[in-house]
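Model: Ready when you are.
Researcher: Fold this.
Model:
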Amino acid sequence: MRGIGVVVISRNEGAFLRRTVDNLEDTLPGSSSVVVVDDGSTDGSADFLAERNGRARLVRARNLGVARARNLGASRCRGDVVVFADAHIALQADWWRPLVEIVQQPGVGAAAPAIVNLGSAPRIGYGMQFKGPSLDVRWFHRKPKAPCAAPILPGCCFAMRREVFQAAGGWDEGQLQRGNVDTEGCVRLWLLGYELIVTPETVVGHLFRKRSPYPVGWAEYLHNRMRLAWIHLNPERAGKVVAALRHSPRFGEALWLLLDGGVAARRREMLAARVRDDDWLFERFGMRW
């Protein structure tokens, strides 16, 4: 392995960003690199990176959104394994080692650790699945005995071989702002023929916040869910998603965003590239709705 590149997306993270960066620098092997993409912070939280000589490098952007910011960060970091990390996580020594071992296996598209809530009610989760046509997700809380497949991996600490990241086309830049970027990426990787694995013995802490430190557009959030459905799901299943979301505030605006985002061309592209369909994925994990 020629090193690990960690991409951290940050916006108004306050003191959490410094803690996460220090934690990464303390626990990563020496050949690793860290790129922090500050996506338009107004709180000065990333300024310390411009003032010191450490392993972490700062890339400034402005309102790219999670998908495009992650792609930018991946283009600026070194390493044949890329880890996408939130700016409010806590990592233990050697957290990276099981993830790297898993993603180097043929056929594996990505790996993620178990996640524990750093808030007041800690509970460990081992990947997720869709709850229903609104595309909300629920965590698996029963600890598996060994690394195992999960339909959706947590994006707060998500490892991939760089060659897989490039072959899959990176994160979908048609996804706006934040919300459901990780779920779309996971569905796409499964349909392209990869396996997604959770490593239960590695536990990473993540701060689940009730409020975002920056404004999040509800129309964009709904758009991302419908974009996933219209690109990757069959017409009947996509119709159920639309029906589940259509009474949400800003639904009409989200629909216009979807129609303006080249969704039909993207669907044709994905249908031509994938080796599995969504029926296979839903049957594999017993998701029935």
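Researcher: Now this one.
Model:
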Amino acid sequence: MQIVFEHPWFLVINKPTDLLTQAVEGIPSVQTTLVSQLFSQHPDGPTPFIGIPHRLDRVTTGVMVVARNQRALRRLSEQFAARRVTKKYHAIVESTDEINTLENSEKQIRWVDYLRKIPDESRGEICDASIDGAREAILSFRKLRYQTLPDRSERFSLVEIELETGRMHQIRLQFASRGAPVVGDTLYGSRVAWIAGEFRQPPIALHARSLEFFHPQTAEKLFFEADYPDFWPEGHHP
């Protein structure tokens, strides 16, 4: 696990793909991987504490903050709940007329929807606000540029997304519902291959690029950015 920043109260990491944030015993996760990694550095010490104040999907890569004690976990969790954390993602999506009109400008589009988790399934859907389980989902995005991919003739769009809420599969659902699924996201309608390989779930072109939050001990504002994974094609990194 790549550790971007290390402090006695928290860690900032760059999550790899094909790894759950948390999981039941016996299944690898960000949490268990970090516990093992830290314990191997100090095998005579106690089992490290790793608290999870937010999550990324298995198929998503990028920056995360994790707590190293209960107080840090509480304070970080409170920041996420109060929407005091700025989360930005980069995604390669199928182009639509709405996205194309942005023409690589600073202009932003803001989408407000209601989402719900489909009962007994590991996916969600856009729904009416009156439906049981519906939760408001808000994001804003701007287009960074057109994006090409190896061996593809069509153009895609590289977008930067800022989440105001953190719902299950939010980015994936809101873009897919408007005809612009994230490349490789077959769960929500993408028909474009992204990365081949031996994965439990193949990655998608969605990367948590940056995170801004307040230091859980000192309240200092902090900013961290995560490098793109190696499988973003050479010459096509955002």
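Researcher: Key takeaway?
Model: Residues 30-41 form the longest helix (12 residues).
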